[in-house]
Write a structure and sequence with these properties.
Elements (H helix, E strand, L loop, with lengths): L7 H11 L9 E2 L17 H15 L2 E3 L16 H18 L16 E6 L5 H17 L7 E8 L9 H15 L7 E7 L7 H4 L5 E4 L9 H23 L3 E5 L16 H15 L6
Parallel strand pairs: 1-2, 2-3, 3-4, 4-5, 5-6, 6-7
Helix pairs in contact: 1-2, 2-3, 4-5, 7-8
Length: 294
């Protein structure tokens, strides 16, 4: 489920709006940029803010978090924001606190602190220099934080780079091979996937055969479905993606992004509102709970 948690109040509001249903989410997407509370000395997000965000995400939303880049591509080149490093450190700290709370606990004790699984995103663009920079940063992180890398479930190479036309399937497959080679000795257990729209280029055999599982993004809102028909469309589109990925490369499929806007312009029969968001989210999570939706 695509839920950006840019501030403390967002996670709290989300949990209040949806109650116990939030606990059924498989995972959430996270972007750490907070323009209002950037570190004054670096112009980048502060570690303390990211730690707070992820603690709230873990306790109120889901046990998994997926990011989009290691170095913020929108930060100035002379002061690149290494958001991926801060997220990695925060996830490791959260899990260390959870592990430390386990010894000596009794059945009557309060629930243990939540743990987080990290799906670490890498930015991919039309300029190969962006991916090359991300790959260097990934290698640096794997060498600098070998223990923290144990909390990384998967590397997500690109987010909708195919859909934007930044790159084609063969070149993206080559990026996946580069990541796998770089992590072969540093973090061999980490899985590798690509997140993109469930449309034909994603199911190119040259790409799918390089992945450990497929991650597809499906947004009924952008397809102009009203909230009453949106969940049904969501599930049908997901099943179709499962069938294609399994037939091409025998891959399992994760729903990497899904969501509904609370405000903005309508898209055909799809209208943005808090009520529509609540109805879509609740219906989607309840219908998809046996499946993997992040």
């Amino acid at each position: 489920m695509r839920v950006t948690v840019p501030a403390v109040t967002t996670a709290i509001l989300f949990a209040v709006m949806f109650g116990s249903v939030a606990a059924m989410i498989y995972g959430v997407n996270y972007g750490p940029r907070r323009l209002a509370t950037l570190d004054a000395s670096t112009g980048c997000p502060a570690y303390a803010d990211i730690l707070t965000d992820l603690q709230l995400a873990a306790s109120k939303l889901a046990p998994r978090v997926k990011t989009f880049h290691l170095e913020d591509p929108d930060s100035p080149p002379q002061r690149r924001c290494r958001n991926g490093e801060l997220v990695l450190r925060a996830v490791a700290a959260i899990n260390a606190a959870a592990a430390a709370a386990l010894p000596g606990r009794t059945p009557a004790a309060a629930p243990p602190p939540p743990r987080l699984e990290l799906w670490m995103g890498m930015a991919v663009g039309s300029d190969t220099g962006l991916f090359d920079s991300e790959l260097r940063e990934l290698v640096r992180l794997a060498k600098t934080y070998p223990d923290a890398m144990k909390h990384v479930y998967a590397i997500v190479v690109g987010s909708e780079a195919l859909f934007r036309g930044n790159i084609g399937p063969p070149a993206l497959a080559a990026h996946v091979r580069d990541v796998r080679a770089a992590l072969s000795t540093l973090a061999p257990a980490v899985r590798i996937t690509v997140a993109d729209v469930a449309f034909p280029p994603y199911f190119d055999p040259a790409l799918l055969h390089e992945l450990d599982f497929a991650t597809v993004n499906i947004y009924p809102f952008w397809e102009s479905y009203n909230r009453r028909d949106a969940v049904d469309y969501q599930l049908r589109a997901f099943r179709k993606a499962e069938t294609r990925a399994q037939s091409v490369a025998n891959l399992s499929v994760v729903l990497g992004e899904v969501g509904w806007p609370s405000q903005g312009d309508s898209m055909g029969a799809a209208t943005p509102s808090v009520d529509d968001l609540r109805a879509f989210f609740t219906g989607n999570v309840l219908a998809s709970s046996p499946r993997r939706v992040i």
